[in-house]
Amino acid sequence: MGAASDGMGGWRARIGALRESRKLVLVIVAIALLLDNMLLTTVVPIIPEFLYDIRHPDAPLSVSLEDLTTPLPSPTPYCPCLNKTLVDNNTQIPLNLTAEKEERHKELIHETVAVGVMFASKAIVQLLANPFVGPLTHKIGYSVPMFTGFILMFLSTLIFAFGRSYGVLFVARALQGIGSSCSSVSGMGMLAERYPDDKERGNAMGIALGGLALGVLIGPPFGGLMYEFVGKTAPFLMLSALALGDGLLQLMILQPGVVRQETEPPSLRALITDPYIIVAAGAITFANVGIAMLEPSLPIWMADTMEARRWQQGVAFLPASICYLIGTNLFGPLGHKMGRWLAACSGLVIIGICLILIPMARKLEHLIIPNAGLGFAIGMVDSSMMPELGFLVDIRHAAVYGSVYAIGDTAFCLGYAVGPAFSGALVNSIGFEWMLVIIAILNFAYAPFLLLLRSPPARDEKQSLIISEKSSVRYVSYQNEEE
Fold first, then answer.
1. Which ranges in 230-367 belong to alpha helices (H)?
2. Angle CA(8)–CA(11)–CA(15) in degrees, nearest 5?
3. How many other C-beta atoms are found inside a 10 Å radius of the C-beta of residue 19?
4. Residue 23 burial class via C-beta count within 10 angstroms: exposed 0-12, middle 13-18, buried 19 and up
5. Interhelix angle for 432-446 vs 275-305, to 10°?
6. pLDDT tens track for 113-134
């Protein structure tokens, strides 16, 4: 009996140690971001074609126009009159084919608008939910909103699996937005709280964003390949199973429950009116708006100009995803050394250059270098500005992070709301090429604003002296300026 009691006590001690582990919390946050963004991007190669095929059951996008045109029988060489008739008739085929291609081109441009609105719905709902989730974490802690995010994402995945109409899929995408808000704000706030040292926090957030990057990396090719060879339902059922595993892990390690903050949190208004926080958040928005515009428009542009197949439309995003994963892990620690403002500023310039290069592609291979550069540069900005937001709250407000990461997530969502919502209209009015050129110019124009973050002032000198013990490089320069 005593041995059993000792064994049970040892087991409880091990579970207690696991719950206190910062690394396990980091793993849970990274998995949550991975699954959220895998669902976000798995739909990219699936939904545009699925919706097109619903509306055009007699002429699905996967069937080429040449296949839909019934070829005439070969003329008999021994009958000159018959041969002449068939040759005359044959001259009509290219004209009909051209007319059908033109009609399909118009349909695809129209489809970009509907797909863009659906893709934007997730980000818009997440945008609306963030101002509520941030202050809520101050009152009840991070674990309950985190678990709520899992439940909503699980439901969203199941709806995607079985939805067969635009309206149902729209609801699934919007529901994912609320779940993402809960997961992202709570997850980043949890990491900022568990990693108070600025350098360690940057490394931890780089790893967590690596989970996000991995989701973005796996999502499009996973969705494209599964849709091509298995069908629409299977990839979402697999994602729902993975989400269920993450939920069980949260129950075991985080044990969701209400935890009240002891420190008085900064008001959302005080954070929104802080110019340094706004500059950092703005960099996240401008960095992500380009790729957000590409998500609904690039697969359709590829189908239109390259006659790309489903798997090719998914694989096109692979270089961006791989390099985003590299960029976030590299610039988590490197951004702290070189200056996060410089990393983000350089990233915005590289993003602008890559956006200009993308429309010059004429084959799938031509997209590799600009997409890779785009992903790497977005990783530079995200992994630099996310920990920068926590740092700015530390030195200028109070070390309570729910609201500031609500602002950071709102900035991220703003890019993904504006991008898809306007991409269809812009492609219709000015074309795919000019749309990307305009976004590139906006990135170039915003980059100089990041000079403001080179040495942001602390709330008071005492606060600066306390924090500088942890990381002397950045804060000593501020003190010298004051002297």
1. 233-253, 268-272, 275-305, 310-315, 318-338, 340-357
2. 140
3. 13
4. exposed
5. 160
6. 777 778 778 888 888 898 898 8
pLDDT of residue 275: 92
Give the 3-state secondary structure of residue 232.
coil
CA–CA separation, 146 and 451 (whole Å): 34
Nearest alpha carbon to residue 64 among 93, 91, 101, 103:
101
Average pLDDT over residues 168-177: 91
Segments of 98-205 assigned E as strands: none
Neighbours of 384 (CB within 10 A): 35
CB 329 within 8 A of CB 207: yes
pLDDT tens-place string over residues 400-433? 788 888 888 888 888 877 877 777 778 778 888 8
CA torsion sign for 46, 51, 54, 60 is negative
Closest CA to 284 of 127, 399, 176: 127
Torsion (CA) 397, 402, 408, 411 in degrees, nearest 10 = -110
- The pLDDT tens digits of the residues spanning 77-89 come to 444 444 434 344 4
- Distance (Å, rounded) from C-alpha 367 to C-alpha 363? 7
Q: Two tokens at 262?
A: 């002891």
Among 188, 197, 161, residue whose Cα is nearest residue 176: 161
Cβ distance 348 to 447 under 8 Å?
A: yes
C-alpha distance across the termini of the chain, in Å = 69
Instruction: Answer for the pair 412, 477: CB distance below 8 angstroms, yes or no.
Output: no
**Cα–Cα nearest to 42, from 182, 153, 165:** 153
Structure token digits, residue 148: 């709520």
Which residue, 453, 126, 138, is CA-closest to 278?
A: 453
CA distance 335 to 414: 24
The whole model's pTM is what? 0.72
CB atoms within 10 A of CB 326: 16
Spatial CA neighbour of 320 closest among 346, 343, 342, 287: 287
